[in-house]
Amino acid sequence: MVGFSLCCDQTDSVLFELEKKIVNRSKALITLLENLDEEFLEKISQEKGLKEIKVGDVFHCCMIGIHEKHEKKGIAQAMLKEEIILAKTLGYKYSYCEASSTASFNLFVKYNFSPVLTCDPKEFEYEGTRPYQHLTDPIVILVLNLQTGIQYQ
Question: For residue 28, how many other CB atoms are within 10 A of its CB?
Answer without folding.
Answer: 16
